[in-house]
């Protein structure tokens, strides 16, 4: 399928293919073409609502304001409607890898991500592109999240749901974290990659995702990233989105140490922002 996609979209079949990652509806490969080029091929299942065409649109829009991989081709590659996106290969080093190896301090990485996100949110949003509805943000949780936990974060959900329709939309990346930033060396240009979930949305949702996924849950981490972001934010909505994203991480975490980590972060948030949580009250016992 990788070679077929390259032949259809680039006119050059693949000579080699290395699987890099896979999801429920996507698979990503690094492919070597017969003409000598190295490219990244993302294959989307025909059932994917967001596909190669929507991702290519987001990458091209983001490319006006932030470094992104060049889109070499995108389109339908099967009669069933499967799609493929082919981009220039920027290499395998990520900001996350440099942070983990100690070559880039965590604080600097937070500034880098905040700066990239601030620039991305300045990209022009086409009115023909639908905004991601709030329902999409919680629908995936309903079947997996315990009802008592959803009830506990009811105040946070109410704040998010109450965001006025007139609030401006920006291009949201949707999955912003250190490993979605690619660079050749610690001083190299930072490229923002993987726009699978990109769509117009609320800036607070995207910034909150960055805070949660980069462990910037402490006050200093939050100040560092937001200081580089430099756009005005509604603090109440931002904090509410942090709660929602943390719950999503808790839901998808494996039982054991990972689940305990996210439980601890939820408890920290409940202490820092108690107004975003509903506390259970003991019923009085009749005398």
How would you describe the overall organization of this protein?
With 287 residues, the protein is α+β, with helices and mostly antiparallel strands. It is 42% helix and 16% strand. It starts with a helix and ends in a 15-residue tail after the last helix. The protein is globular. The longest helix has 18 residues, at 235-252. The protein folds into two domains: 2-88, 2-Layer Sandwich (Phosphorylase Kinase, domain 1), CATH 3.30.200.20; 95-276, Alpha-Beta Complex (Aminoglycoside 3'-phosphotransferase, Chain: A, domain 2), CATH 3.90.1200. It has a five-stranded antiparallel β-sheet with strand order 1-2-3-5-4. The model has no long low-confidence stretch (mean pLDDT 91).
The CATH topology of the largest domain is what?
A: Aminoglycoside 3'-phosphotransferase, Chain: A, domain 2
Which regions contain 5 or more consecutive residues with pLDDT less than 50?
none
Share of helix, binned: 40-55%
Quick one: biggest sheet? 5 strands, antiparallel
Distinct helical segment count: 11
Total strands: the figure is 9
Number of domains: 2
N-to-C order of helices and strands: HEEEHEEHHHHHEEEEHHHH
CATH superfamily of the largest domain: Aminoglycoside phosphotransferase (APH), C-terminal lobe
Task: Give the mean pLDDT.
Answer: 91
CATH architecture verdict of the largest domain: Alpha-Beta Complex
The first-to-last residue Cα distance is 73 Å
Q: What is the gyration radius calculated from CA atoms?
A: 20 Å
| Name of the level-1 CATH class of the largest domain | Alpha Beta
Q: How does the helix and strand content classify structurally?
A: alpha+beta
The general outline is: globular
- In percent terms, what proportion of residues is strand? 15-25%
Strand order of the largest sheet: 1-2-3-5-4
């Amino acid at each position: 399928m990788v070679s077929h996609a390259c032949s259809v979209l680039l006119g050059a079949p693949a000579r080699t293919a290395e699987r890099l990652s896979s999801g429920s509806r996507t698979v990503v490969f690094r492919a070597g073409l017969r003409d000598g080029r190295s490219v990244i091929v993302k294959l989307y299942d025909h059932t994917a609502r967001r596909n190669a065409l929507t991702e290519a649109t987001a990458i091209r829009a983001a490319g006006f304001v932030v470094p992104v991989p060049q889109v070499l081709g995108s389109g339908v590659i099967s009669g069933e409607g499967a799609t493929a996106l082919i981009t220039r290969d920027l290499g395998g080093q990520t900001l996350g890898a440099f942070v983990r190896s100690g070559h880039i301090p965590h604080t600097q990485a937070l500034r880098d991500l905040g700066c990239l996100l601030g620039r991305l949110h300045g990209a022009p949003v086409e009115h023909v592109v639908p905004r991601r509805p709030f329902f999409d943000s919680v629908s995936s949780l309903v079947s997996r999240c315990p009802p008592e936990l959803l009830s506990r974060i009811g105040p946070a959900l109410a704040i998010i749901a109450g965001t006025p329709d007139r609030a401006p939309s920006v291009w949201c990346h949707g999955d912003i974290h250190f490993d979605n930033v690619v660079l050749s060396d610690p001083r190299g240009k930072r490229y923002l990659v993987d726009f699978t979930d990109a769509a117009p949305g609320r800036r607070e949702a995207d910034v909150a995702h960055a805070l949660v996924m980069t462990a910037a849950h402490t006050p200093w981490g939050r100040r560092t990233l937001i200081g580089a972001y430099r756009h005005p934010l509604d603090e109440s909505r931002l904090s509410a989105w942090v709660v929602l994203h943390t719950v999503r991480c808790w839901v998808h975490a494996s039982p054991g140490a990972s689940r305990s980590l996210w439980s601890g972060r939820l408890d920290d948030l409940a202490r820092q922002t108690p107004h975003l949580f509903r506390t259970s009250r003991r019923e009085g016992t009749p005398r």
